[in-house]
Amino acid sequence: VIEDLTGLHETAEFPVGVAIDARETVGGPSTLLTRHFNQVTHENHMKPEAWYDDEGNFRPHEQALTVLDFARDNDLRVYGHVLVWHSQTPAWFFQDAEGQPLTTSAAHQQVLRDRLRTHIFNVAESLSDRYGPFGSPTNPLYAWDVVNEVVSDSGEHADGLRRSEWYRILGESFIDLSFEYAHEAFNDVHAVSGSDPVTLFINDYNTEQSGKQTRYRALVQRLLDRDVPIDGVGHQFHVSLATPVSSLQSTLESFAELPLTQAVTELDVTTGTPVTQARLIEQGYFYRDAFRIFREHTDDLFAVTVWGLTDGRSWRSANAPLLFDDNLRAKPAYHGAVDGELPA
Ligand code: G3I
Asked: Which residues does the UniProt record annotate as the domain GH10 (predicted)?
């Protein structure tokens, strides 16, 4: 039974998205989804490793296409996640033909640049073959997290970047190249001509925390200084009731002066355990205040995505971090997000 409630997306001027897999495209979950959200993100099935079979052959994952078809058929936008990441990427990306780690020799750097470019172009080509060029009405994909989690969690390195395999072999240049290849593939070669239909984001977590935020902002500024074709800054906002909600506001403000759009890409709010009624109500107030902040930033917010539809499907399910419970019932978190009535 889906309750007759105001659609969350009707309460905001920016698209409101949700992370899903094929399970949310059928039955009750799909009804709940289309009532409250007008955008979707693949929680796992467009990550780098999802595009390859066990032999390393490129092919779209069946669940990626199920979600894209569902989006196309229901007028939902797709915010893509993720082209380049240090995690959930096949190990062979960073190995030579003998299975040894690539070195930083010029030849090995070229091998990795070619793999990066080929991956991004294969994704663009396979999707445009099926859905038409980007920017055409049958193609629902309109944004990508181009690079994910490239900023270091510590301040020990002057450039503030994560020491990943991408970084070890190519240095900071892998970030520039990722955006350049993505721009060429999604906004030129496979796009409706004369448009830039796909908005290209950098994405990271803990950007509401001061150290990470400073390193993130410095990197984004360097990309802008180098004329890298980046369009937006993503904030995952995997937060908890201990997070000052005002930090979400100050984060959006600190990036607002840049000539870029911003997105909240993976919102969820853990309650702490045990999950009590009092904590669920407190969570309702947190979501209320967070969405109030987002609505105030309508001018520079591209979209807000909640990282899952129902609590049991969350990567942090023990902490009931989402808007709906496993019976598809709205929690206080939903009522807060739509700025409705909350118990005292
Ligand atoms: O599909 C296999 C299944 O066949 C197997 O039986 C099962 C056993 O563990 O694993 C399944 O894969 C899991 C996959 O989710 C699909 O459920 C992986 O183990 C598990 O690691 C994976 O977790 C995902 C995680 O990213 C991986 O890093 C979460 O669902 C997903 O919510 C999470 O999302 C990330 C974002 O991509 C980036 N930002 C942080 C965010 C939360 O960690």
From this structure: 2-340
